[in-house]
Amino acid sequence: MAYTAPQLLSMSQKDLDDLFSASPAGDIPNGEAKGTAIIAPGTVFSSEIASLINIFTWQGKTFDAAHGTLRNRILAFGLDAIVAEVYKGASLFDNKECIVLDYSKTSIVAEHVRDEIRLIGPGVYLGLVYWNTTKAIHFALQFPVA
């Protein structure tokens, strides 16, 4: 099934967790992905919060699979900043394979942040954000599909 950002925003926290757990890691992506922060999932506020975050703070991520890195696109003008190392590893959520976005060695601002993503459809990844080892929020990444 192909998931869209509005569908993911309308899902419950449990449904998002179940989808993440049931999904494969997939290949490490390459290129630019549009990001959607999923805060207060399944509530009337979720899409409004996601829109505000996209406008003012975070638009997505640009992956360089060959070098195992990514840069977040932040601020209203899409500045490429906040670098992470990208590799496959065990998820903190369920110990199954995922793609880890590790900021611990690359960013002073985000050194306590770890993201994990899994492929949930063609060009679509569902992610989890951790602060140290505490799960904080979900997010989605949508890559252009040829």
Task: Summarize the structure in words.
A hairpin with a 4-residue loop joins strand 2 (58-64) and strand 3 (69-74). This protein has three helices and eight strands, in the order H-H-E-H-E-E-E-E-E-E-E. The mean pLDDT is 93. The longest helix is centred in the middle third of the chain and has 11 residues, at 46-56. By secondary structure, the chain is an alpha+beta fold. It has an eight-stranded antiparallel beta barrel. The two termini are 17 Å apart. The protein is globular and about 35 Å long.
Specify the number of helices: 3
The percent range for strand residues is 35-45%
Shape: globular
Q: Write down how many β-strands occur, each being a DSSP E stretch of 2 or more residues.
A: 8
Average pLDDT metric? 93
Distance N terminus to C terminus? 17 Å
Structural class: alpha+beta
Unreliable stretches: none
Rg to the nearest angstrom?
A: 14 Å
Helical amount:
10-25%
How would a textbook summarize the main sheet? 8 strands, antiparallel, barrel
Instruction: Tell me the strand order in the biggest sheet.
Output: 1-2-3-4-5-6-7-8
Element-by-element helix/strand order: HHEHEEEEEEE
